Amino acid sequence: MASRRAAVDLLIVGLGSAGMTAAEMAAGLGLSVVVVERARAGGDCLWTGCVPSKALVAAAAAAHHSRAAAVFGLPSASTDTDLGAVWRRMRAVRDEIAVGDDDPARFEAVGVRVWPGDATVTGPHEVTIADEHGGVRTVEAGVILLCTGGHPVIPAIDGLADVGFLTTETVFELEEVPRRVVFIGGGPVSVELAQAFQRLGIVSAVLHSGDRLLPRDEPELVDAVVSTLSAEGVELCCNVDVVRVEPGPVVVGRVAGIERRWPADAVVVAVGRRPNVDGLGLDAVGVATGERGVVVDSHGRTTVPSIYAAGDVTGGEMFTHAAAHQAAVAVRDAFYPGRGRAGAVVPWATFTEPALAHAGMTVAEARGRFGDRRVRVHRWSLEHNDRARTDGATTGGIVLVERTGLRGRRLIGAHVLAAGAGEVINELVLAIERGMSVADLGGVVHVYPTIATSLQQLGGRAAVERARRYRWLLKRAGRRSWRR
Asked: Which DSSP string corresponds to 30-57?
């Protein structure tokens, strides 16, 4: 079939979280936009990430709380879970989003042309698209934006490929759900799913090569997560060197030099993700790539000025919200004079129960950078939060990290372990971005009773401590009146 040629302002490769954000934003600005997608619109978040995992987490929470209802004076339910029904419901939620907000037709309706096929960058302003029917078309674009996402990393473990394994790309497609699962990897994916699986009646173990699970999060709050999951029956093992997988399957590893064996019905590999850069033709046009993916500046521009990249393909913070933000920054930088704001604080949350949310620096990171004397740490336990008490969910707390200096104090890190921590953290991101102090939070009126009330309480305590330095300014009008 003969090649066809078209010209547009913006060509986007990939209609996942970054691509959808960029396409909708650009179309709203009146730009002509083409998006090339080789698989399904919605990307990893919809099909193999956030949506299906959170649907399972929600089902697991319902099962767990029905069994623990006696805490609230209610009869407990201990019926077996229909795992097939849980998986079908998860896929139904995913499909509902796919034919709604993530439907290519919605983007077509606002003027975005969505073309299926494989894209190859053939010039600084040119992309060649090959479809499944053998058709080829070439698109000239003022700007090219790469949003091709990533894929699971598969470790080189003897016997793993022979025995078979699951990843996030396959575990949500199961027709027969296993009853015993071993997770290899100690990050958010393994920890979230292990708790959810255990609550659904699937015996779960997590094997991690490092010293601590969730190594990027605040350690004292991670310890509480570990205690919770252990109490629920999840086997959590750190410092495990997985050496092979035998038929069964049986995962074989060494802990402190001693060989251990973990029999299972399935093995889930979740040790990280790798950017999708192969097959894009980037080397030929001069776009630099590295081990972490496409090399970009703080605005998403690659080493070729007309080509940008956003999301997992850049190897940065691999979160849906980070990808969307990066895409918006890239479009803003590419089409508006001047340079848009970049370098935003990217929070994240691990949706265990309680959930663990993170923004900015941990205590150790702050002290390592600024020294002990210039870092102030504020802590609050949920045992002192009335909403946590009423909900029977007092496991958790808040850790705020503040930098002190000649210009005063400012919040540089925030960590929350609580129900709804992913919601609470957003206020703290804004506080970090605006250079607020912890005491400033005390001046913001919060709805009571909420978990976020503890932020006001923490801020109030910090404000009182600061005010003590100026006690000599205290008004004592009543005492002066009495003396007269």
From this structure: T--EEEEESS-TTHHHHHTSHHHHHHHH
| Residues 120, 148 contacting (CB under 8 angstroms) | no
pLDDT at 337: 73
pLDDT by residue (tens digit) across 322-351? 999 999 999 999 998 766 566 789 999 999
What backbone phi and psi angles, to 5 degrees, belong to 35? -120, 130
CA distance 272 to 293: 13
What is the C-alpha separation between 312 and 360, in angstroms, rounded?
20
Task: Give the strand pairing for 258-263 and 4-13.
Answer: unpaired
Domain 4-42+102-151+274-335: CATH architecture, name and number where available: 3-Layer(bba) Sandwich (3.50)
Q: Which CATH superfamily is domain 354-470 in?
A: FAD/NAD-linked reductase, C-terminal dimerisation domain (3.30.390.30)
pTM value? 0.92
Number of H helices, E strands in the chain: 16, 23
Q: Name the superfamily (CATH) of residues 160-271.
A: FAD/NAD(P)-binding domain (3.50.50.60)
